Amino acid sequence: MKKKKAWQLTILVIAVIGISIIIGHSNSLKAASPLGKDTLTMITSPDYPPYEFYDTKGGDVYDGLRLRQIVGFDIDIAKTLAEKLGFKLQIMESDFNGLIPALQANRADFVMAGMTPTPERQKNIDFSIIYYEAKDTIVAPKGSNLKQPQDLLGKKLGVQLGTIQEQNAQKIAKKVAGIQLKQLNKVPEVVQEIKSGRIDAAIVEDTVAKGFAQANPDLEFNTIPSEEASGSAIAFPKGSSFVEPFNKVLQQMKDDGTLAKLVTKWFSQNTAANPVSSTPAKGGLNLDFTRILPDIPFILRGIPLTLLFTLLSVTLGLIWGTILSLLKILGIKPLTWVANAYTSVFRGTPLLLQLALVYYATPQLTGYDISALEAGVLTFTLNSGAYMSETIRGGIQAVDKGQSEAAMSMGVPYWLMMWDVILPQALKNILPALVNETIGLLKDSALVSTIGVVEILRSAQIVGANKYIYFEPLLFAGLIYYVLVMGMTLGASALERRLRESE
Ligand code: ARG
After folding, report:
1. pTM score > 0.85 for this model?
2. What is the full DSSP assignment across 176-230?
3. Spans of all domains in the chain
């Protein structure tokens, strides 16, 4: 009997501790309520060195679960602003085309992402004064000699989705014949497409193009002559009360030379994330893992998050699955019907779709700004509960009927009999199925990378994007998953053996 209690207790303890970690963590990441808030939330698109990018080497701040290593010109300005205004600063990320929607949904207090004020944008959001100016350039493989819009005749042209570069490219395409546009989510993806020859050129701001060209000696860039400079400003939700105080401090920073110092710090050196080795010869795949050696700790730090995520989803999924399975076998028609309908919906739709719905729809439906991590755990719990409910139902029904009859005849109440007699045996029976479920969840945890959680896969992608190499980081991430799954399998067989011996 003692042993069985220990089982149930462990599950409850894991659930409670896990939930408090996640909630505590998300709260620390979330802005306090607008009244009496002490933290400003900024959202940026960290694909834009030297404005904002992931620093995968050194200087990391690891706050337990999430890596905060976004650095750059904008980040330094934001930190100074927050400090001078007496706020703590918290940084969130999204692709560039998600920044304005994030402001409109009040998910952040401001955006700094080298964003240019345009009349269309000003209809939906407010801007600060301009803090830096830049011009557009044409980036292309060395020797292409693409200097002005007319040279782009019949070319495939890449731009970042949602930027003014995309608009400018569209304008050029109206005048110059045969231009094919390709819109990508991130600037490093645009650069990668040039390097792999899928596009001929791209339109990129000069300050950014310079860094990429320095890091990639096989690229060149030319400033578009007629182009007038466009500026970067801070963006706020329409009507935000922060515009004034931000402008004041920005002006101070201009006047007292703080801004000029930051300009020198970030724009006068080679700040493009990392040096890049040249493109591998066509037709051959040369793997060189030494290229990612310095970034391995960065990737490894995704492991605790992945493990916590898995453990929590399995535990909560087990609890939820048990409840569902009881609803199914209780014999009360409407309850059985609801539980069955639930299971069929969650098994009948893709997990990735459920994840996106929970993450993006929750704030609109409930007003609660669910964090990516919370959305992940919630979705995985709901989904795996559906699968587990069937397994547990089978496990319960496999327990010898005589036992429940004996317990009932001794006057033990139904729920106590379930909790004390039937469930522990059912769990033991379904242990192999639970291990399978856990392994599945561990691997599926990679899906939360799509909503911005920096777990193993996402860390590998960040390293890949910074270095323009893809296979090595991905293969390394694959190895980590494999080792974790193997470890789990071994642990599970040991546990099973012990349980069998204790019988
Ligand atoms: N200045 C351009 C714009 O406002 C491009 C900014 C892109 N920023 C980024 N973090 N990717 O459209």
Report:
1. no
2. STT-EEEEESSHHHHHHHHHTTSSSEEEEEHHHHHHHHHH-TTEEEEE-TTPPPE
3. 40-132+233-267, 135-229, 298-502
